[in-house]
Amino acid sequence: MVYRNYFLLILKKLKAAFVDLVPIILVVVFFQSVVIQQPFPEIGEIIIGIFFVIIGLMLFIEGLEIGLFPIGETMAYALAKKGSVFWLITFSFALGFSTTIAEPALIAVAKEASEISSGAGLIENNKESMESYAMGLRLSVAFSVGLAIVIGVLRILKGWPLYYLIIGGYILVMLMTIIAPPEIIGLAYDAGGVTTSTITVPLVTALGVGLATVIKGRSPLVDGFGLIAFASLLPMIFVMAFGIFWFK
Amino acid sequence: MIDFFTDLSVIFLSTITDVLPILIIIVFFQLVVLRQPIPHLKKVILGGVYVVVGLAFFLIGLEKALFPIGKIMATQLSDPTFIGASANEITSWTSYYWIYIFAALIGFSTTIAEPSLIAIALKADEVSAGTINPVILRITVAIGVAFALALGTFRIVTGTPLYLYIMVGYIIVIIQTIFTPKKFVALAYDSGGVTTSTVTVPIVAALGLGLSSAVPGRNPAIDGFGLIAFASLFPIISVLGYAQLLELKKRLSNIKTHKNEV
Question: Are residues A106 and A159 both part of a single domain?
Fold first, then answer.
């Protein structure tokens, strides 16, 4: 009886991970059978790969939910209440940095980028230089997300208006675009959207809403949100800076 | 088979280093700064193990399934025989219309089902006391992403510079920000950040890179990226638009009740 419940629970979790992929599978199958009407190459490998993705995502999200999110949220609240600005800022940076390093989507894009750049002759075509390029990319993004969360937290503490900072950030992005090498621009813009998916968003939102609830005179709707917006802006600036140093 | 297992152990080792910073921070802040024992230690350890194993499996699946799907779809849909062009003839951007439709459908369907967007929509409904309808918010974001990916693939096919699109997009966002009630602005900005999930990002990135290597005259290093950036920018515009419509509706009904009173 106990085993049956356990089995049902696992099935339920698998279903949740599968739902993420269903829209993609449906669209691809529709295109393959109706529009392209050709045999799909390497179909066996891809089906095995999809199983890996589903099981991997299931374990990853389950692990976050039972282990990391509860403790992360409790810590965010505890530190916001503690009232030490120094530790709050240090925690914010560490949270942004560490969750970004473990972000699967960023690992994926950094890998693609290192392959493309070595193919285009921008970096040396060997495993070592590709790996250090991918790592350098991830470190610059992680550093910038950490910094972004710090700015976002300071904004909530001091009550700075969000849109001035955002517009200022946009202007900086534009200025960097002018001096950055063209090969890094697309990647840098993409890095902004990549940073904030599985791990970062829930923890950072908890931090923001927690802070806005603890501090008097802040509303969660106006002040709690907005952290993620910074976390998408700063990586663009830092990846372009990374490109300026790396490609010269 | 032996290769597979050495690959697996390499991937496991690298995922452990990926997750290590988070563990160090939890231990440090909990024990040194907050000076409290870690609550539910067993669950935290179990969760950590799940995260490492899950990430490793995901990375294997990424190489075997997600990257290939994006690349194969891009190659097949831009194949000269599929779009009905001879190999050396320069094709106009209109012959790639199936790519635009495919990109838009992928964008719409994955965004509607995106769990972190559902979470944000429910939270927004809660904190806005029902002014923001969570279903309409999700549809609005999904339309933004669909349009973004269609336009993004169009940009890759034509090879027009990315920064022009982004700049125009930013200018639109800034103008909208000025005219949108402040309480919606942060929500709109955050909606842009949550659209691209762990599953969507690799497929969309591979689609863009595959497309830029398949279309004659395009360079993947310069033209291939940018789809994810579009998918983060355009939902901001559509959500700000939705907020402006809500405001307009409110003003119109205010005028009506005012007239009735007179």
Answer: yes
| pLDDT tens figures, B76-88 | 888 877 777 655 5
pTM assigned to the model: 0.85
Distance of alpha carbon A228 from alpha carbon A215, whole angstroms: 19
A53 and A110 housed in the same domain: no
Which pLDDT tens digit goes with each residue over B134-173? Answer: 889 999 999 999 999 999 999 999 989 998 998 899 899 8
What's the complex ipTM?
Answer: 0.85
Kindly state whether residues B42 and B11 are assigned to the same domain: yes
Write out residues 67-86 of A within 8 Å (CB-CB) of B: 67-68, 70-72, 74-75, 78-79, 82
B72, B110, B219 member nearest A23 (Cβ): B110
